[in-house]
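Dear support,

I submitted the protein below through the web form. The confirmation email said the job was done, but the results page showed an empty box. After a refresh the structure appeared. I'm attaching both so you can tell me whether what I see now is the final result or a partial one.
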Amino acid sequence: MTKVTFSCGGLLCIGAIQLALGKREHYSFDVAEVKPHYGCTEPSGQQRVRDFVGQLVSEELSIITLLQVEFEMDHPEGYFAIGGACAGSQHEDVAVALVREEEFSFAAPLGATQHGWYNMPYLSGKLAQQPPDPARSMCISNIKVVGERPYAGAILTHKASGVSLCLVIGTLPHPSAFPKSFTMDFVDAVQSCAQDRPLLLVVDSNLVYGQTVAETFSEQGLDLQHDCSDPGAFGAPTCCNDSLMGHPESRYQSDRTVLCGGRGAVKDFTVKKDYICNAPEEHLTTRATVKLTEAVPNKHTEDENSPSMRVPFPHIYGFSASIFCLAWCYW
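What the results page shows now:
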């Protein structure tokens, strides 16, 4: 009889403790990066890229990042686009993200990031403008030093969790060859966007095995000051199709999906085994799942009077019940 009483009490205690602690919700979404390189000029190769992106859309991937996709593409239904370009005198490099409307809402652009399909360079049929307008000055580094290295970004709201998220996409300069090359415009934009928000980076980092994006940012004077989840640093290589130099196999872990801010992690980072366009310097496509922890109230989205700032009923009474229950079990 005593044994039965203790077992029931134990179960009640466990239930009360779980009720007191509550359940921290986790939310996930999928991200892909596609970089066929500007060498993808053959119509058949470009069509394969379009078909592949269409496949990702049909799978309802949450964010599809397109780097150096320099040909036209139909606007995928159910997605909004953000993008930017870094335009030099001879060439324009681009970075675009397709974001699923059902999962995210657009809050604000990063710098001169463009919002809306009509404004997307190349994809919408727009080409470089001379002289470059502000929308085409989204350069991570000095063009005269490192060439065209574009970025784009935005503050997004993840609808299911309420998390305000900073998304940054682009191509970083080679860190070993160009240390301290980030422009202050880029540094200030990222710091402002990521303040009190998780930072999601989907980039060609131009890094190799074991080097992390956070370390590169720190060396460039942009300290993320957060734990970063960067599984691609130790994943399969993604760069590049160097067939013309005798290396068709990828050798470097350049393409990364990174989450900084301590409110989640990047999981299931995978690399496609074959190229899509089969262009020189093409990168292998990456996919990953980003797992977010439910928003901790912050000054961007909530105040002390918002419902999520109040202590829920189960937490108050669950805590009291757990104390009573533990005392009862001990007795």
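Response: this is the final, complete result; the empty box was a page-load delay. The chain has a mean pLDDT of 81.
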